[in-house]
Amino acid sequence: MTAHLDDLVLHDHADAELAADARAAADAHLAHCDDCRARLERIRALADAARALPRSVEPPAAVWSAVRAAITDAAMRVADDDATDLAAVRKRRLAMRRRLSLAAAALLLVAASSSITAWVMRSRPGDRDQLATRSASVIARPVTDVEQRFASDVARLEASLAARRDSLSPETIRTVEASLRAIDAALAEARDALARDPADGALRELFSATYERKLDFLRRADRLVSRS
Amino acid sequence: MIRARRRLRARPLTLALVALAFATPLEAQTKVAQGRAVNRDVSLRIFNLAGSVRVVGWARDSIAVVGSVAAGDRFMMGGTPSGMKLGIETPPASTTGGRAHLEVRVPAGSRVWVKGGATTIAVEGVSGGLDLASVEGAVQVAGSPRELRVETMSGDITIDGSPVWIRAKTATGRLTMRGGSDDAELSTVSGALAVDGGRFGRGSFQSVSGDVTFAGRPDESSALAFDSHGGTIELRLPRDTGADFDLRSLRGTIADEIFGRQPVPGRQGRGQLLAFAFRGGGASIFATTFRGHIVLRALPLPAAAK
Hints:
The complex is a heterodimer.
Chain A: H1 7-14, H2 20-30, H3 34-52, H4 61-81, H5 86-120, H6 128-139, H7 144-163, H8 170-196, H9 201-222
Chain B: H1 2-21, H2 23-29, E1 31-37, E2 43-58, E3 62-68, E4 74-80, E5 83-89, E6 100-107, E7 111-124, E8 129-134, E9 139-142, E10 147-152, E11 157-160, E12 165-169, E13 175-178, E14 181-188, E15 193-196, E16 200-207, E17 212-215, E18 223-228, E19 233-237, E20 243-249, E21 254-256, E22 264-265, E23 272-278, E24 283-289, E25 294-298
Parallel strand pairs in B: 2-5, 2-6, 2-7, 7-8, 7-9, 8-10, 9-11, 10-12, 11-13, 12-14, 13-15, 14-16, 15-17, 16-18, 17-19, 18-24, 19-25, 20-24, 21-25
Antiparallel strand pairs in B: 1-3, 3-6, 4-5, 20-23, 22-23
């Protein structure tokens, strides 16, 4: 048997771009080579899948509005601080336009990468929903996604603790409640700050870390010895 | 007269019979004194919901327990030379458990779990592993176990030693460590956290609203992270500390009293940031607080260096 067909030949064959004699030689090989036939089929399937993709992927309209509003709001606040300095205002407006352009470019890039990823992942239908969710969330991450990540575990543990409350000593109950108040106060401060500046990465990390701390505390409290 | 003598002779016998009838409860009511031969690396679980537990490591391959048990409760001890369990059992019909005090001597290389509620726990001289949990009682550890895990809700935690690996957590208690560790995570919710004197490889020191105070000598392999949402973070370091510093107070202030560096305003003019490398870097020191303050202060020179 002759050597296997290389990838370039197989791709050209799938795209009907081989010259007549090269195609004949390839067909002769394919007639008795299962390996190369299987590779050719995979290439054709991939090409079919790519052709079936939509020509463009638009993010939800609300997402771009939210991004634009956040950038505008931040820029306007800075501009308001120094409204009498016209040169500074012009400079800031230019910066705002640049930021909006960059944000638009970023959105296009994300949309494009989402398409490519969707094309590659097409053969794994189970991942499609997960991918769509992740793509949308990459564009804008409100504070609530942090809370949503922890919400069900926090709710479950709080319910379990409430159900066992009578088995804890009064001092322990006071300690648990005081600690939860301190943690929730910290969360409220961080949440308010993030609502005003959603793009602050350090603040988001702090908020997420504090939520993890709440979850850890609730787990510990839930393990408490009864009749403490 | 003879009848009187007979009555007198009968009384000791009666008393003996009464004593026999109550023999078992009498033992459980007061003193405990038991011992067992065990392996030098025995795993031992101790439980006592109220009172105290003191664990002392020794050079023998045996466990010895002395103590006292409250009326109505029962001391139990059982297991094999490789795994033992001992502690206080409160019968189901009992509405209140009393306080029991146990002193347990164990082979120094043991792995010991102690679980309590309103129980003070003190451990010294154990170099194996320790896992200590008390809800309201204080916990004290002296020595350098290979692993140390300790948790309380409101009890203070005090560690005098350098466990290789440590995880210590309390909510409202005060957490004090005098020593170092290769891998440490110490945290409180509102209690103060104070670390003094050791060398840390990897250290994480966190509180939600409590102050965090650290005094130590990081070396080039140290990676230390300090975090308090609302408390002050005070770092006392030698003047010649070679380190990369990344300090952030998102709404508070930063003061560098060692190197004299000035922080810059944070994002949108809020809070302060200070990031620099001293002496070419080396140790990594991160500190973050939301509205607390971060202070760098100089550690006094050792007496020999003065």
